[in-house]
Design goal:
Elements (H helix, E strand, L loop, with lengths): L3 E10 L2 E11 L4 E5 L6 H9 L4 E7 L2 E2 L5 H7 L1 E4 L11 H8 L8 H11 L1 H5 L10 H14 L4 E5 L7 H18 L2 E5 L3 H7 L2 E6 L2 E7 H6 L1 H8 L2
Parallel strand pairs: 3-8, 3-9, 6-7, 7-8
Antiparallel strand pairs: 1-2, 1-4, 4-5, 9-10
Length: 235
């Protein structure tokens, strides 16, 4: 049984339909990439899972139906959503942002949780008392991912983690994501414009265009597809 499964999911913003019968699955411990052009519905797919947009169809997490549940209820089940734009609280310090990520955890676990994320992101340890709004874009992205890890999720939803960042910073962040996935046994559902990095990280991938899944398969199969290589990989 997949950890996450969407079946014939539709979503709309008022009269504008953004998803048309989308079906996808994420297995336990798997990294799955969702590719597609701007406006294709990729972000809406993540919002559908985390409960921040109304949907029809079936959405199941760990065998439980989560369609129609409040976002807080879905987060408590073990789904952490890192939205595009990072969503950090800029007036709070780095450490205070991380504490917010762990608010559902037992207080006795807090010290170990801090040690864990500072091991992955030592730069955040150096800036723990610094307001988040004064961090660089790369550091804010690190903080957003670290805050998700603080909640000890089973599934992390990542929306455009490379957005606006220098290539060297992006490569570093993707390496950390892969390390977290393997060491913490966390599943990852990744929406990403950088298809090359996304397919290198992922086990499986879906291509969404105008709200429809048009291609799905192993990440290697999509990376080897000539049309996808021309349209999304640049070669």
């Amino acid at each position: 049984m997949p950890l996450l499964e969407l079946e014939n999911v539709e979503a709309a913003y008022g009269p504008l339909k953004a998803l048309h019968g989308v079906s996808l699955a994420v297995e336990q411990g798997q990294a799955v990439a969702v590719l597609g052009p701007n406006g294709a519905g990729k972000t809406t797919a993540l919002r559908a899972i985390s409960g921040t947009v109304r949907t029809t169809g079936r959405i199941a997490f760990d065998g439980k139906s989560i369609a129609g549940r409040a976002p807080e209820s879905i987060a408590r089940l073990g789904v952490a959503h890192v939205p595009e734009g990072r969503g950090t609280f800029t007036h709070l310090t780095t450490e205070e942002n991380l504490r917010l990520g762990a608010y559902r955890r037992d207080p006795s676990e807090l010290e170990a949780s801090f040690a864990r994320v500072y091991r992955y992101f030592p730069r955040l340890a150096e800036r723990r008392q610094q307001p988040a709004g004064t961090l660089s874009g790369g550091e804010q992205q690190m903080l957003a991912i670290a805050r998700a890890v603080m909640s000890r999720p089973s599934l992390i939803l990542l929306d455009e983690p490379s957005f606006g960042l220098a290539p060297r910073v992006v490569e570093s962040i993707f390496a950390i994501i892969e390390r977290i996935r393997k060491e913490q046994r966390v599943s990852v559902l990744l929406v990403e414009q950088n298809a090359v990095l996304a397919l290198a990280l992922a086990d499986r991938a879906y291509l969404i265009e105008t709200g429809y899944v048009v291609t799905a398969g192993s990440a290697k199969a999509l990376a080897d597809d000539p049309q996808i290589r021309r349209s999304y990989l640049g070669y």
